[in-house]
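At this stage, I wrote out one protein's amino acid sequence and its backbone structure tokens, and that material follows here:
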Amino acid sequence: MRIVPPEIKTITVNGVTTEYSLFGERGPVVILLHGFRMPMSSWGGLYPEIKKHGRIFAYNRHGVGKTSKATCPQAGDEVIRSLENLLMALNLSPPYILAAHSWGGLFANLYARLNPDDVAAVVFVDAAHPDEKRRQENYKPPRFLLLITGVLKAIDTRFDKYHHSEDDRVAETILQIEAAGSFPPIPVAGITGGKNMPFVPEVCFAIHRQCQIELAALSPHAVQLIANNSGHFPQISEPEIVVRTIEEIASNVKHGALA
């Protein structure tokens, strides 16, 4: 049975309504950044254990759940600006631990570069590497997957739910990461799924694994963990690994070990 975050609420900031969950009473603020079009409930397997390790903040970005549709392009700087407005409105002060899955990793990567004094650590959960999309471009998925993708995009266009999509501005987000300067020397944990996803060519999976190694090595204070029984969603298939990693990092933050 899926466990969803407790006390789901909404808040309206600058005319934008956002669905979120905030719980836990002590410790650093742990910000959960979900993947593209994934709901915050994709972190559900971490609950309730995770609430022991800090103040946990999860939210749905534009077009997901009850959060408003985007009214402007969603490149990384705009996603981060929206997040900063939420944190201010909810009186959530740093230090922050960013836990990011899939494309959420792009935003965590950019946020840490732009706000190095506010971010104590980053946990990348099978997260996107900025250069992986380019490296994968020479390898096309099967034709039927391209067809399915085309159909889904046509549906999105028809119903306008993901207008100004993060997908439309991913190239701009990557350029922003490259222009933002060096990644800060903060602790980084990279959690990588050990299993390939169905229909993904082995050469593409090898590229993904190499990108995961490089992502975990962004900082001199880094460790990579392999979730051997997981594909792209370790937080769902092996949540205990993600919880344990956040616990260890949050404990160090509480005791001032991650200055």
In short: Confidence is low (pLDDT under 50) at residues 144-152. The helical segments are 76-89, 104-114, 132-136, 143-159, 170-179, 202-216, 234-237, 239-254. The CA atoms of residues 116 and 184 lie 6 Å apart. The chain is about 35% helix and 20% strand.
